[in-house]
Design brief:
The protein is α/β, with parallel strands linked by helices. The protein is built from ten helices and ten strands. The protein is 29% helix and 15% strand. The strands form two sheets. Strands 1-2-3-4-5-6-7-10 form an eight-stranded parallel barrel, surrounded by five helices. A two-stranded antiparallel ribbon has the order 8-9. Helix 9 runs parallel beside helix 10. The N terminus is likely disordered.
Length: 368
């Protein structure tokens, strides 16, 4: 399978010492979103900047190859997720589903040399029993998939492990132990805790037995919109990348020396607005539009800009190589609960700020 040339505007990702296949280089990143593939041109038009990567989700035990091929044909990198479907993680980990893995490996090879980022499940803690009861089997399944890919000669895959829900996963109150889901946790010393992991109990970046190419995380700002006039920062600033990194993510994971990638991130455009005007428990898009038309919504774009800037600045400084911004369109039951980037931001503040970063020199596109 071969694909045509990419538009000249796209910058080549280059690195003198690649940390993984298609590494954009230290301090650089791939700008991505998680939209419907048919909306890519609209996204790029609103941003005034090219997208380098598109996040895609499979709901069965086969990667979403048709969507991935559309992304590749457009000169962009697909980041795909898929599930085990009717299989079990334990069977996968124990080698009972190797034929299935071989088939997926062949599909990766058919698309070489084009890079394909991948994650098994998109948020495994929720997808595969949030109690952690299935964590060991899931950890083993990830290792089996990646090592089988290696044995089969796959060279164009980039394994983004886990997509932990940050900062929730790393808070003691969550009751979760992130190590149990991480496929490079060896679990042999019996030392350390989730909050204070023992570095000797992990395969780290560059170790021969490590299977992780990139450490995956998802970041969401609280969805709460402002309830009182002038309330422009109290809830908006409690999930900055700086605070999450310094408090949770950095102390727990930086010793791994892994690059990071954000599979989903997003924020409400900072705004002053009433919630649920008729008190029925949902705030529909029609109600939101009516509030906006009546002049009852005030935006604070500078605060939105600063939040987005903080993510790019903080996370690239700590090795983040991909930012996939979530655009959920109309959301559940046609409400603003999922904060659709396309709709619930009448000033398009977030599009414009993403475009600023998409035009920076650090924003790379892969051209081979």
């Amino acid at each position: 399978m071969r694909y045509g040339p990419i538009a000249a505007k796209r910058r080549t990702a280059a690195s003198t010492t690649a940390r993984f296949y298609a590494d954009p280089g230290v301090g650089n990143f791939y700008l991505a979103v998680s939209p419907n593939v048919s909306s890519i041109a609209t996204h790029e038009s609103k941003m005034g900047a090219p997208l380098a990567m598109i996040r895609l989700y499979g709901t069965g035990n086969t990667p979403p190859w048709a969507a991935a091929d559309n992304v590749i044909a457009g000169g962009r990198i697909p980041w795909i997720s898929w599930l085990e479907g009717g299989k079990t993680n334990a069977d996968i980990a124990n080698g009972l589903e190797d034929a299935w893995i071989h088939g997926i490996a062949a599909e990766f090879k058919a698309r070489a040399p084009w890079p394909i980022f991948w994650t098994f499940h998109h948020e495994p803690e929720n997808d595969t029993i949030s109690s952690g009861a299935n964590a060991a089997a899931y950890r083993g399944a990830q290792r089996r998939i990646k090592t089988t890919f290696r044995d089969d000669g796959v060279t164009n895959d980039v394994f983004v492990a886990n997509c932990f829900m940050c900062p929730f996963t790393f808070q003691p109150s969550s009751g979760r132990d992130w190590r149990t889901w991480y496929p490079d946790w060896r679990n042999i010393t019996g030392l350390g805790t989730a909050a204070n992991p023992d570095p000797n109990d992990f395969w780290k970046h560059g170790d021969a037995n490590s299977v992780v190419d990139v450490f995956g995380i998802d970041f969401y700002h609280d969805w709460d919109l402002k309830a009182l006039p002038g309330d422009t920062s109290s809830s908006f600033n409690n999930r900055t990348a700086t605070s999450v990194w310094n408090t949770y993510l950095g102390p727990r994971t930086s010793f791994l020396n892994q690059p990071y990638a954000i599979g989903e991130w997003g924020t409400a455009a900072d705004q002053d607005a009433p919630k649920d005007p008729n008190g029925d428990g949902t705030w529909t898009l029609a109600e939101y539009d009516a509030s906006y038309t009546a002049g009852n919504i005030t935006y604070f774009p500078a605060i939105t800009d600063s939040w987005i800037d903080d993510y790019f600045t903080t996370m690239t400084a700590h090795g983040c190589v991909a930012f996939a911004y979530w655009d959920s369109f109309t959301g559940a039951a046609n409400t603003v609960v999922n904060n659709p980037l396309s709709i619930a931001d009448k000033l398009e503040t977030r599009w414009k700020r993403l475009g600023v970063w998409g035009n920076k020199s650090q924003a790379k596109q892969w051209t081979g």
